Amino acid sequence: RVFVPGRLGANFRRAAMLIYSRPITVAYHANRASCASCWSACYLLLLIVLPYVLAIAMGAFWTKDAFEREQPGVRFRHEVLVEAYLADGTAIGWSTSDQLNTALGSRLRPCQLRAWPEDTDRDGKPEALQFSLKVPLDADGGER
């Protein structure tokens, strides 16, 4: 080792050996009836009780009745495609689309379709649609 003048303390620290050490703990005590203890107790009570008070005050803590009824909107868009097969396997059809009726050609069979909404509980909203379809057949041609 080289001795450096003015650095005696640094050289001494390196040469010193640690014999015993212990951590220093500092504890502060207060009476149970002190102001800090009262505030801690109030804070803990508020932390536990406040959520229950808020839930009960809002009325959603114990839900007694929760009924929700939904009713779908029933509408008929007046778009129909009818496909039928005769006894001999020939396919006939009809549609509300003029383009499709033109494409059917000789297999086009004009049908009579009636549709009406059905309101069983009389609340002004239809629950179902009823359809009546009549397909004319040529009995002389052997259609059935």
From TrEMBL:
Subcellular locations according to the entry: Cell projection, Cilium membrane
Recorded GO CC terms: ciliary membrane; ciliary transition zone
Pfam families hit by this protein: TM231 (PF10149)
Alphabetical list of InterPro entries matching this protein: TMEM231
Keyword Transmembrane (UniProt): yes
Swiss-Prot/TrEMBL keywords: Cell membrane, Cell projection, Cilium, Glycoprotein, Membrane, Transmembrane, Transmembrane helix
Transmembrane segments annotated in the record for this chain: 41-62
Membrane topology: Multi-pass membrane protein
Protein's GO biological process: cilium assembly; regulation of protein localization
Major subcellular site: membrane
Record-stated family: Belongs to the TMEM231 family.
Function: Transmembrane component of the tectonic-like complex, a complex localized at the transition zone of primary cilia and acting as a barrier that prevents diffusion of transmembrane proteins between the cilia and plasma membranes. Required for ciliogenesis and sonic hedgehog/SHH signaling.
Protein name stated in the entry: Transmembrane protein 231
Native source species: Phaeocystis antarctica
